[in-house]
Amino acid sequence: MVHRTVVHVPDEVANKYRFVVVSGKRCEQLQRGAFPKVEVQVPMNKLGQPQDAPRLASFWGQVAVREVEESRIAFEEPEITPLDYTLEVPISVE
């Protein structure tokens, strides 16, 4: 797997913060055993044999970033309802 520092934030994600949150949640899913939606190259050990599915967040984090970059992860944007805390109280002048 290639280590990168520059990522492409898709338009539907809209900002870097949401990109990080969605990627982090997907990384958690992958660590718990979710099936990756991109092709994953299994790392090899020192003897040249494929390792079992690694539990390292760094490995699954790179997979999650790639999935979000390629827009393969669906997410819902929470609905925000603004609260009106202003009260109209009559002022009595005595």
Q: Choose one word for the global shape.
A: elongated
The separation of the N and C termini measures 77 Å
Q: What is the count of helical runs?
A: 2
Give the integer mean of the pLDDT values.
83
Largest sheet report: none
Low-confidence stretches: none
- Gyration radius, to the nearest Å? 22 Å
Kindly state the percentage of residues in helix: 25-40%
Sketch the topology as an H/E string, one letter per element.
Answer: HH
What portion of the residues fall into strands of 2 or more residues? under 5%
Structure classification: mainly alpha
Explain what the structure shows.
With 94 residues, the protein is mostly helical. Helix content is 31%, strand content 0%. The mean pLDDT is 83.
Question: What brief labels describe this structure?
Answer:
94 residues, 0% strand, elongated
Compact overview of the structure:
This protein is an all-alpha fold. 31% of the residues lie in helices and 0% in strands. The chain has a domain at 16-69.
Q: How are the secondary structure elements laid out?
A:
Elements: H1 16-31, H2 57-69
Helix pairs in contact: 1-2
